[in-house]
Specification:
Keywords: Disulfide bond, Hydrolase, Protease, Secreted, Serine protease, Signal, Zymogen. Belongs to the peptidase S1 family. One of its GO terms (molecular function) is serine-type endopeptidase activity. It is a single chain. It is built from two helices and 14 strands. The chain is mainly β. The chain folds into two domains: about 130 residues, Trypsin-like serine proteases (Thrombin, subunit H), CATH 2.40.10; about 80 residues, Beta Barrel (Thrombin, subunit H). It has a six-stranded antiparallel barrel with strand order 9-10-11-14-13-12. The longest helix is centred in the C-terminal third of the chain and has 7 residues. The radius of gyration is 17 Å and the shape is globular. It starts with 11 loop residues before the first strand and ends in a 7-residue tail after the last strand.
Length: about 250
Amino acid sequence: VLAGVCLIPEPVKRQLSLVNELYKGQPRLDGRIVGGQRINITDAPHQISLQTHDHICGGSLISEEWILTAAHCTGKDANRLHVRLGTSECSRNGKLLRIKQIVQHEKFNYSNVDYDFSLLQLQNPIEFDETKKAAKLPTESQEFMDGEMCYVSGWGNTQSLLEPRDWLRRVQVPLVNQKECSMKYSRYGGVTDRMICAGYLQGGKDACQGDSGGPMVNGDGVLVGVVSWGYGCAMPNYPGVYSRVTQVRQW
């Protein structure tokens, strides 16, 4: 409380700050999934790492030359970004590729993170193999049930010093009722129709900083959401908020 005014902490977008690049010599936590398990890239071959000089966000292959990620990760300058794909480790192996163009959703609103989508076009199409495959896209009318279990993967913050630093991880989380999630975030304006929530109300498992832009897929491998924002990471009563892919199939 400051001068009689209660200050409400802001929810966080889930990319790693570019300020981290200025402190490469200092120990810090690289971003990873909270409460998840280590997996191989063959378990999530659609997963990519979006990088400057280091990992900042995730993303999903949706074709041989296009990637879907979060708008708050990208800006509009393709020259400063690269994509690493085909590897379980975000800092080495696989292929490091240049981006031809960034198509940020024209309705993206940074203040409330609505329409948090960007498309990245690679300089050259890739060839798919067991480490590089497109995620399945939902139909525009496809519905997902409250409580349906989904999988979120990435190199985001694990909030643990004991976890390996660069290895891909995945966590399983249930979808949360839209109205209930919007009520949980009512002091932040709630969630819009372009958003979908997932997580445990008791906390403990979630995406976190560094996972932004990455995939949330259901048990059939359909891309349900794009990691977007939330209050803290794995906090009780605050499920993760994802950009709802069905809402932009006509984009």
